[in-house]
Amino acid sequence: MSFAIYFPFLIYITVVNIALLVKDKYKNIKSISLGYISGIVGNIFLFLPVIYEIKLDNISSSKSWGVSSFWRIFIQFLSGNSLKNKINNDIDLNILNNEFALYNTFHEINLIVILLLLVLSLIKLVKNIQINSLDDFDLIFISTISLAGIIFTVINRPLYPHYYFLFGIFSYLFLFKEIKNLKILFLVCLVYSFSSIFIVLNFHNFIALNDGAGNSDYGKTYESCGKIVKDARECRGQ
Q1: Between the chain's N and C termini, which has fewer beta carbons within 10 Å?
Q2: DSSP character for 144?
Q3: pLDDT score of 234 more than 80
Q4: Cβ-count burial of 110 within 10 angstroms (0-12 exposed, 13-18 middle, 19+ buried)?
């Protein structure tokens, strides 16, 4: 049951723990195993209050958004472009673009920054592999982006940006750790932070001015998305 409800967390920590165990040649297997089991037990207890409200047939009927969805949504999460999914109706989009003309521009700026950092980090990762100089963040990133991505693809479940929070922490560290020049690091962080703040403020201002984007996923009512639904993809903006 815990796996069905919060499977992303279970998959991430499993992959990370296995990767670190292999790297350390199983030296810390006792402590890592104890922490892993404790985490699973703790999560099971967290879901006990709602266990009778969740039906596995509802969960199993939901499917993913395609073979590449894990990696697409991962990029959207890092760049903040996942916010676009919340407003997906043409009428709402036209109103948003008219009221906040630079909204999409800042989305593109964030995407360019993340893609550029990702390419540079992957180039450095390949070099580290060649000289057998992988650190923990390299190992966690490459194992999660490959192994976890394959697992999510095989089990064919719908994914949402907030599922990437745990992986996202390690991913940001992976992307920024190779920037040795403090001035460049400050500039990149400044651009990314400014554009992200602009996007979030524009989004919430739009919601406030238009009573919540009623034609889009974000505007779904409690009756359709405030409770368990048969297909989770119906409420991806929630």
Answers
A1: N
A2: I
A3: no
A4: buried
Supply the DSSP symbol for 145. Answer: I
DSSP H helices, 49-164, are 56-60, 69-79, 90-99, 103-130, 136-143, 149-155
Q: Cβ–Cβ contacts within 10 Å for residue 91, how many?
A: 12
For residue 78, give the nearest of 118, 106, 123 by alpha carbon: 118
Tokens of 134: 């992988």
Task: Tell me what pLDDT residue 52 has.
Answer: 64
Q: Which of 86, 43, 46 is nearest to 237 (CA)?
A: 86
The position carrying tokens 């999660």 is: 144
Q: Residue 106 burial (CB < 10 Å; 0-12/13-18/19+)?
A: buried
Question: Which residues lie closer than 8 Å to 176 by C-beta, 6 or more apart?
Answer: 117, 185, 188, 189
Query: Which tokens belong to 173?
Result: 């560290």
Torsion of CA 228, 75, 171, 197, to 10 degrees: -90
CB 120 within 8 A of CB 178: yes
**Within 13 Å of residue 163, how many CA atoms lie on the same side as its CB?**
24
> Which residues have C-beta within 8 Å of that of residue 175, sequence separation ≥ 6?
78, 114, 117, 118, 121
pTM: 0.73
Give the residue, 82 or 153, on which the prediction is more confident: 153
Radius of gyration of the chain (CA): 20
Per the structure block, which two tokens stand in for 121? Answer: 């980090």
